[in-house]
């Protein structure tokens, strides 16, 4: 049967596509499908040439042939994808069987070697036993050792048989041959303590925990250990910044107290009035804001000429 040029092009492209399939049965089916597609296309072209150009049969035939070709192409593509996945699964199973057979063969060879060694040893032991028996010697210990060796060989054979039976349905060679080792359990992380500061008992526990933490940090500094010597640097003298004019609390404090926060400060040096009004609170360097009532209570206890307590 002579095909048209369009049908020949379609047939060559289809055959070139399906020829890459390694499966013989699928290849034959795809070749038959290609010839069927070319036949349908050739008939549609012949029908189109014989019929009139304005006939709706021509349009219907072309549309039907296109849909049929699309359906067949999609079916062939899906079949090819599923066959490829199936072939890959079969290949993995074959590789697994090869590795399992090699492993079992190695175990079997080891078992044969042990059996040969056992036969040689037992022959030697039997000769020794026969010699001692002829001399009326005690051979009970040697007989016990002989039975122990035979029992060990039987146990090893049973382990080999159980291993083969247990791995018949396995899919992973790594799990079958080398079982995974258990990971070491991580050490439990100590929980951070929690305190309910809304209660007096919770606040007391919180203060106790803070004090213990500070003591443990101070104990880390050993008395015999020399501190690290930092390179000598020339001290940088920063200019003393004058307080703002609207800051009535700090204007009366001596400027020497700003040079170093650890400089001693007496109760009488702290200003208590400004614009003929008594302050509600005062600022103590290295301590912070203190209410005037608390400050006057401390001053009455320690005296106005005493140094201000840093805490």
Automatic annotation (TrEMBL):
<keyword id="KW-1133">Transmembrane helix</keyword>
<keyword id="KW-0472">Membrane</keyword>
<protein>
    <submittedName>
        <fullName>Uncharacterized protein</fullName>
    </submittedName>
</protein>
<keyword id="KW-0812">Transmembrane</keyword>
<feature type="transmembrane region" description="Helical">
    <location>
        <begin position="56"/>
        <end position="82"/>
    </location>
</feature>
């Amino acid at each position: 049967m002579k095909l048209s040029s369009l049908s020949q092009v379609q047939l060559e492209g289809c055959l070139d596509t399906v020829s890459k399939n390694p499966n013989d049965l699928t290849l034959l089916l795809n070749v038959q499908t290609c010839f069927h597609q070319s036949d349908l296309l050739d008939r549609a072209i012949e029908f189109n040439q014989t019929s009139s150009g304005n006939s709706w049969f021509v349009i219907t035939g072309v549309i039907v042939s296109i849909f049929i070709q699309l359906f067949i192409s999609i079916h062939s593509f899906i079949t090819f994808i599923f066959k490829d996945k199936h072939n890959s699964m079969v290949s993995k199973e074959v590789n697994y069987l090869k590795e399992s057979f090699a492993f079992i063969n190695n175990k079997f060879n080891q078992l044969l070697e042990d059996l040969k060694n056992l036969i040689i040893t037992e022959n030697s032991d039997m000769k020794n036993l026969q010699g001692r028996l002829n001399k009326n010697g005690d051979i009970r210990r040697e007989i016990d050792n002989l039975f122990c060796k035979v029992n060990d060989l039987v146990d090893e054979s049973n382990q080999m048989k159980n291993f083969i039976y247990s791995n018949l349905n396995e899919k992973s060679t790594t799990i079958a041959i080398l079982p995974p080792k258990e990971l070491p359990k991580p050490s439990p992380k100590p929980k951070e303590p929690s305190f309910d500061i809304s209660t007096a008992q919770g606040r007391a526990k919180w203060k106790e925990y803070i004090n213990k933490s500070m003591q443990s940090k101070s104990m880390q500094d050993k008395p015999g250990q020399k501190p690290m010597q930092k390179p000598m640097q020339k001290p940088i003298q920063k200019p003393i910044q004058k307080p703002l004019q609207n800051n009535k609390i700090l204007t009366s404090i001596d400027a020497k107290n700003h040079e170093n926060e650890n400089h001693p400060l007496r109760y009488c040096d702290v200003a208590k009035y400004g614009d003929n009004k008594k302050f509600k609170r005062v600022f103590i360097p290295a301590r912070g804001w203190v209410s005037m009532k608390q400050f006057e209570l401390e001053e009455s206890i320690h005296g106005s000429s005493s140094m201000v307590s840093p805490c």
